[in-house]
Each structure stands twice: as C-alpha cells, then as structure tokens.
Amino acid sequence: MQTPPLTLYLAAPRGFCAGVDRAIKIVEQALEKWGAPVYVRHEIVHNRHVVDDLRAKGAVFVEEVSECPADRPVIFSAHGVPKSVPAEARDRQMVYVDATCPLVSKVHIEAERHAEAGLQIIMIGHEGHPETIGTMGQLPEGEVLLVQTVADVAAVTPRDPERLAFVTQTTLSVDDTVDIVAALRARFPAIIGPHKEDICYATTNRQEAVKSVAPKVDAVLVVGAPNSSNSRRLVDVARRAGCSYSQLVEHAGQIDWRALEGARAVGITAGASAPEVLVNEVVEAFRARYDVTVDLVETAVERVEFKVPRILRETA
C-alpha cells in the first residue's frame, strides 16, 4: 500500500540545552560516586522519560529535603531553589549538590546585587514554577514582586517606584517578555534591567528555530512535558508565527493522527529538557504512516557546555 508523501521539518537547535545536560550528568555521576540511592529534590528537569530513566538507576525524587535521610546525598534540580533549601541541608549536615543551571544562578546573583544596592526587585515569571520560586526565594519575602502579564504591571505596588530593578525567568516567551519589559519601563522609567538578557540562549534559539519552521508547515509538534515552561512557550511561538495547529506531545503515542489528516508538511521540535530519543520515536512514527522526507531547519549552532560541580570531579 502506497503511503502519502509528507515533509518533516526538524527545527535546530532543539532538545537538551547545556544546563539540562549538566543536571542529568550530576545525578548520574553522583550515583557513580556515592551509589544508590541518591535523592533529588523535585524533578531534576521537567521530563518524565529523563526522570524515569534516572529513577531506574537509583535516583529517588522527593519534593522537600525533609523527605531525605540525612546520611544520603541530595541534589537540587536545574530550576534552582530558595536559599532556605541548602540551609536546611546544612542544618542536617547533609551532603548536597546544587544542579541549578548556571544561567539561572546568574539571575539569582543579579537579584542579590540589586537588593544589596537597596533596590526592590520585580520578577517577570510564572507563579508556582520552581524557577520562579527559587529566584524569589533568594531574598526575604516582599523584596521580589512577581508579574506575569502586561496587565500585572499596572497593578504592582512597589515600595518606591524610583528604586526598582527587574529580572526574568529564563524560559519565557521572548516576544511576550519584550511587551512586559516595555510596560515596566513605561510605568517605572528609573527601573534597572539586567546587563545581559535573562532569557537563556537555549530558550531564545529554540524559539527562533520554531519561528522559521512554522510558516512552512500545516502542523507543529513540540516534544516536551506539560510542566515544562520552555516547551509550552514553543507551542505558543509556533501559533503566533503562523501555524494554528501546534501541539505539545510527551511522546509519539500522544500524536493525534486524525488531526493531521491531509497534512503535507509537519514541523517537529523539542523543549530543552526533552531527549533526542523521543524526537526519533516521533519521526519513526511518521515514517510508519507516510513517505517521509526530512528537512533540517537550522538557525543556530550551540557549543555551550557547563562543568559539573567540583565535588563530583574530585575522587571519592
């Protein structure tokens, strides 16, 4: 039986970023150094496949340090944690490894420096996201005010409108954030922004690649987890760039084939915490149903690499 032709446009860059790759290596090397079990506070990255793979190797995922025995190592996720978390681990004399992405740590340092200068911080981010919780938790309560939308900017009530700085979550929509920053600067002309963009290179690059793919295709599939902020933003970016059917799928089994009937071109990308094996499974699922031609749409080449913490580079 002859299968219909279909072109798959693979966005590049896609999938793992340097921060995610480093975080996964930290868990794997911790297991090699100390043996199982090694505890991980929160999902190390937002991807079920990655978490299940590490769990099978001996990682135990918990939500709070209080759930960990004091005599086993604990790792903090790539999203970052409030200062109270390592403080609790130190109080319990636990061995801990911080897998916070260095680009998230940069935002933490920015916030602290602004606070030391007497500025109150406005954070652009998503309420309840672990990265936002971690960044806001670097300073005492009330020192970081959260805004999620342009409308929030009009409602925020800082202590002193002349003494403000802003930081952002690293995984936001670049376009949405531009609008919120513009609203902040319009309302608070004296507000100080970051020296360098807080939205990380990987988020920006993946969004730019999707913008290039979206006008070429009938549908865009983003491989990623529903709790992955950067993955959900890729869906939004694809829709805004002209592809109305843009969907998030965790794996090939979630593809809605009926919705794709009649499609002749489909774009595929993956969030920064989604492994390439899941992208390959999606491609193979299309090959089983279509006569597939694969076209790579590459808009940037990434060579960023982050070292694991020294405690894991030292011999046991």
UniProtKB/TrEMBL annotation:
Which positions bind [4Fe-4S] cluster? C17, C101, C200
Task: Identify the NCBIfam families for this entry.
Answer: ispH_lytB, PRK01045.1-2, PRK01045.1-4
Q: Return the cofactor note field.
A: Binds 1 [4Fe-4S] cluster per subunit.
EC number in record: 1.17.7.4
Known Pfam families for this protein?
A: LYTB
- This chain's protein is named 4-hydroxy-3-methylbut-2-enyl diphosphate reductase
Member of which family?
A: Belongs to the IspH family.
**CDD domains per UniProt:** lytB_ispH (cd13944)
According to the entry, what is the taxonomic lineage of the organism? Bacteria, Pseudomonadati, Pseudomonadota, Alphaproteobacteria, Rhodobacterales
Q: In which pathway does it act?
A: Isoprenoid biosynthesis; isopentenyl diphosphate biosynthesis via DXP pathway; isopentenyl diphosphate from 1-deoxy-D-xylulose 5-phosphate: step 6/6; Isoprenoid biosynthesis; dimethylallyl diphosphate biosynthesis; dimethylallyl diphosphate from (2E)-4-hydroxy-3-methylbutenyl diphosphate: step 1/1
GO MF term (any one): 4-hydroxy-3-methylbut-2-enyl diphosphate reductase activity
Specify which residues bind isopentenyl diphosphate according to the UniProt entry for this protein.
Answer: H46, H79, H129, S228, S229, N230, S273
Per the record, the GO terms for biological process are:
dimethylallyl diphosphate biosynthetic process; isopentenyl diphosphate biosynthetic process, methylerythritol 4-phosphate pathway; terpenoid biosynthetic process
Which keywords belong to this entry? 4Fe-4S, Iron, Iron-sulfur, Isoprene biosynthesis, Metal-binding, Oxidoreductase
Report which superkingdom the organism of origin falls in.
Bacteria
Q: Which InterPro entries match?
A: LytB/IspH
Tell whether 4Fe-4S is among the UniProt keywords: yes
List residues binding dimethylallyl diphosphate.
H46, H79, H129, S228, S229, N230, S273
Active site residues per record: E131 (proton donor)
Tell me which residues bind (2E)-4-hydroxy-3-methylbut-2-enyl diphosphate.
Answer: H46, H79, H129, T170, S228, S229, N230, S273
CC cofactor: [4Fe-4S] cluster
Xref: PANTHER family: 4-HYDROXY-3-METHYLBUT-2-ENYL DIPHOSPHATE REDUCTASE (PTHR30426)
Gene behind this protein: ispH
